[in-house]
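Hey, quick one: can you model this chain's 3D structure?
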Amino acid sequence: MTETTQTQPLAGIKVIEFSTMVTASLATMMFAQQGADVIKVEPPGIGDPMRWLGSQKAGISGLFHNCNRAKRSVTLDLKTAEDVARARQLCLSADVVIHNYRPGVMDRLGLGSAALRQERPGLIYCAITGFGQEGPLSSRPAYDHVMQAMAGFMTTQGHPDGFAYVKTLICDKVTAYTAAQAITAALFARERIGVGQHIDLSMLESCIAFLWPDGGMHLTLQAGDVTHGAPFADYYQLPLRTKDGAIAYAAMTDAHWHAIFDIVGLGELKSEEKYQGSANRSIHMAELATIIANQKPDLTCAEMVEGLAAHDVPAAKCLSLEDLPDHQQALAIGVFEQADHPMLGAVQHVTPPARFGGEKMTPCGPSPALGEHNESILAELAALSRT
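Sure thing. Here's the predicted structure for all 387 residues.
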């Protein structure tokens, strides 16, 4: 097995991306990191609006960079027949086409799945929508925090007011990972049966499916004689304050809880029947977590974590994002990578988490400037039209 095969499993795959914001962009960046040639089609002018959100330099934001590394950017005005024809030619040269436009948009442009796949049966076409292709909300715009509300995330955080956002673009990213897995499965199926296929997926369905295994566990068993425990949010024991910060812990067994009781100075709780056994603790978890959280042992985070580790209790200091690059475990497994970007200068980003053949994937290219590859891509199209 060659190094290229190990670290670039998608080498030779060509992906055309029509999208704005995170869902399709993050999915296709994973393909680019794994060796695929990803061409991002952007409108002239401002391009993908994500370029201008948050920390930014030279028309590239940190968010855009983190979702678009190793891609090529071409600007096409899909309001003109000439550029629609170019977009069609790009699609017909590709293995994968992905977009996150509302239902009907690509069909009206002549870039829909049926039209393209009739001419190129091996094409894998992935359409990401907010709410699906049918139904009363299908034509509505969808953004992460709105989807958090509709998919149930905001009511599963255990917030005293009943509603709280997960303060990251979780719905966008969940949908991106769902799309990446589905497209990879379709590529595998094409290797076996020789034809591509159309993939529909919505943010709504992706996010409900993501949340359901634990968030919907109390709604899964429908028989009338089910014994219900505490909501899973209660199992996220409240952080335990220390002399220099806070730790998170995940006590699961009696032995784990006894170690917790001892280290916070509440050894007497070991004899409380309602805190014995998983079934009892499940019923009283919110109460127990609050009791523990109200303690403040005269120990540092490091002392607390090491004391619990001696009893095999999972625990970690609550870190800030700024703490992570220098953390010994992150350094040991090579989580972060430093690079020089031709326009941004020094950048720091996260390396791809999957290791193929036991090796980290080779460093990938930078995020592109808007239309940076217009000349080379249009030259490739001209060459294709001559063959």
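One thing worth noting: The chain has a mean pLDDT of 92.
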